[in-house]
Structure formats: C-alpha cells, structure tokens
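Q: Could you write out the predicted structure for this multi-component system? I'm mainly interested in how the pieces pack against one another.
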Amino acid sequence: WSICCPTFIGLMMNNYKLPISKINQLFKNKELNPSELYAETFERAAITESIIHGHLELFQEENLKKALNSDKRYEKGKNLGTLDGIPIAIKDNINISGYATTCSSKMLSNYISPYDATVITRLKNEGALFTGKTNLDEFAMGSSTENSAFGPTKNPWDSSRVPGGSSGGSAAVVSAGSAIASLGSDTGGSIRQPASFCGVVGFKPTYGTVSRFGLVAFASSLDQIGPITNHVEDARLIFNSMKGHDPRDATSLIESKAKQPKLKNAKIGIIKELMEDGISEDAKKEVHKVAKLLEAEGHEIIEVSLPLTKMSISIYYLIAPAECSANLSRFDGVRYGNRVPGSTSSEMMELTRANGFGPEVKKRILLGTYALSAGYYDAYYGQALKARAMMKKEFTDIYEDVDYLISPTTPSDPFKFGEKSDNQLEMYMSDLCTIPANLVGMPAISIPTGLSSQGLPLSVQIMSPSNTDNTLLDFSESLESLVAFTEEPVINGVVS
Ligand code: GLN
C-alpha cells in the first residue's frame, strides 16, 4: 500500500495535524493533493461538528472547485505560496466577499459581505482555501462563546466545558482537526484564551501589524487579527502572509525597526502580579515548569513586578465598552442590521437595537455610553486613558531589563458551561493575563505546554516588545520543541 497508494498513508497519518510546511512538501511531492486534504478535513468535520459546533457555516461545496484548481497548480509545479491548498477557518467577524458575516448576532443574521477583508485578500493571493466561518461570542464580547446567538461551541477536550472566547469556534476547530488553522480576533485575549482552553497555539501580533480592514470593529484601539494553529511555525507562516501596511486601515503600521530581544541566553521575567491570588495552582506550576526548562537552556529567569497589570481589567472595561458603544452605533436598521419596523424612525431604531443585540452587547453599550457621557468622561474614560499610558510606560521600562515576559495565559483550565455566566466579575477575570498585551499593543503568544490535574490543556503566554513579532515567534518555536506537548483531544472516540 505504501508504495502504490501514498495518499492512503497520508490519510492514515491525520494530515490535518501536520505542520503546514510538511503538508506543502507532501503536495509538492505529489504524495497528497489539496482536494484530498480538503475532503479529509470535511470528513473530520462530519465527525466533530455535531458535538463541537465550531463552524457556523461550512463552505464545502463551493470550495471543492478551488481545491481542484490548487491540485492543478501543484501538478504544474506552480503553487501560489506555501498556503496554497491549506484549509483555514475564519472567525465570523471577518468579511469574506459573498458570504454571511453574522458576528454571531441576530442583528446581522442576514448580512452578506460585499467585500473581502484585507487578511482574506492576502490569504487568497497565497492560495489558501476557507473551510467556513466560525462561532464567537456576539460581536467578540465574551470569554466562552456562551454569548453567541447561535448556540455555544463545545470544548473538544470535554464537551461539558467552554472552548473559551470570543474566538472559541476558531480554536475548537483547529483542536478538533476540522481546519488546519484559523483566524481569530483579539481585543482582550480572544485569540490566546480560547487557544489555551483548546490546547492549540494562539498568536496576537503587535497592534497595527495586521490590517483591521474588513474586521467588524469591537474596540478599535485594541482589536487585532491573528492566527490560531497547531504549531508555532504555522502561526509564523500565516502571520507573515497577512501582515504589512494597508492604506485602508488608518492604524496600520508602516514597518518599523525595533531592537530585537535575544534568542540565546535571554532574560525572561515572570510577572509577579500574574502569579498571585486568582491564579490556579496548576497554572502557576506550569509557568515554573517552563521557566525551569528555559533555565536549563541557558536563559536567565527573574521575577518582575508590573503593579499596574492589576488594574488592567478596570482599564479595559472602560476603554473597550467606550469604543464599542461608538462602533456599534452603525447597527441601527438604516446603515446596518436587521430592521424591525416602528411608527417613527427613532422607534424603528429602538426596536431594531432592542431585538438585534443580546444582553452582553447591550450591557457594554450602556457602560460605554455612560463612561463617555458629558460630566463623566474625565472621571472614567479620561482616567482609563491615563492609566493605560502609565501601564505602557511600565512595560517599556521593564523591557529595558528583560527580553521576554512570561505568565499563564489564563488563570485556570477550561471552566464548565454556566459556571461563570452568572458571575460577571469572574468571567471578566478570565482575561486578567491577556488584557495587558492589548492595552500596551505588544505581541503575545499562547503555547500549550501540558495538562492540568483534571487532564485539560494548560498554556503559558510569552510577550515581547512591540514590533518584535518574528523574534517572539522564533523564541516560541524553540520553547515549543523544548516542551514537546503532543496530547490531542479524543472526540467521538477518535483522536484528533
Ligand atoms: N473576553 C474579553 C471581552 O469580553 C475579550 C474579548 C476579545 O478579545 N474580543 O471583552
């Protein structure tokens, strides 16, 4: 069989968990075709989706032709890029021309995007195939996908637990094997926290390196698109295919030179404030375990104090709702959103918004509108901006001394459905470790490193100064091989 039917061998190996560079090599060597891999990921979806519900929409039929075109390119030795023929899932707040972008909201259930987000154009230019759109907390507000109007996504490791959020669908489908990689968006941790809960890699790039054009805005000064993958090298590949200046995003960065952290004999700071109360023993142990491995490699580990990280949830929950209240004003039944008729235009808008938004979104709009209102602006939003600036300075100063910072990605392993939905503060606390990177703008990555005492995935988060993304990814890749985490979830009796 191995001689006469190499594809069969390819299928036996679960190609969907291989690094993209290896898949590309199989394509080039004619040991596997993009259309076969595409079929394999959809076979996998048929097993997993009824349990996981990671995709809101699957594009199987439409893309088969594209997969066959990719086959032809490889046959001629003319593939477009390394991503040619790679099935990638897209969070449903990123626009793909001709497809629905619902943001998991009733408000947008009938919206079909007339254009591609810049990241989609760039991935299409590389030949990537899209498996479909993935589930999220409504308008990316949440940490569990319980806020999706279309039902939650389940964690592939244990379906009684949440996959994290808001990019819960994107993380779950990569973990479950129904996509090779996915795109998520991260405003306060929405790539890294679900990646951690699902035992996969999640990377939030430096703010402004990846265009936000075509991403439905939540909090514009914090939002960033990034990859969720099985391997760090895949995250690097997808990041580098998407990044780069885009004149259609006013906050898009022009490539700038920054002093890069060291790859050998680096100095790494464990953030003291993210190893205290509220962080589980398992999560702390994981950071110490990884720190020991790094020390054995010749890196220096020190403890650092960044006192303002303790304020990050308070700062975030003023800035993010303030920006969201402005961004979501466009969903009024005139510019965007499913219109509910009323006898006057203001009644129509009131009914449209009352009917279209779920409770978490409404709460954030109210909070943000209040924080921005005349008389309170300076006391709330203004103060939050000042605290954010001070926090940025705290991090800039610490990077004078250390190359990287390390912390748990999440305070605990994945929680059960309903466990935190009644306790808002506890739910918000699940982003304690991830929010600082958004407020500061620096890159941050979550790398799976082990299992908790309950057998659920645990990760560590590594951060580095802004504009050092590729160095952070190089460093993370060496950490990934040091840790050698190879566990996979078992879904419906089948290992991913
Ligand atoms: N969980 C955080 C929130 O609810 C972060 C969400 C995100 O990063 N999109 O706002």
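A: Regarding packing and overall arrangement: DSSP finds 16 helices and 13 strands in the chain.
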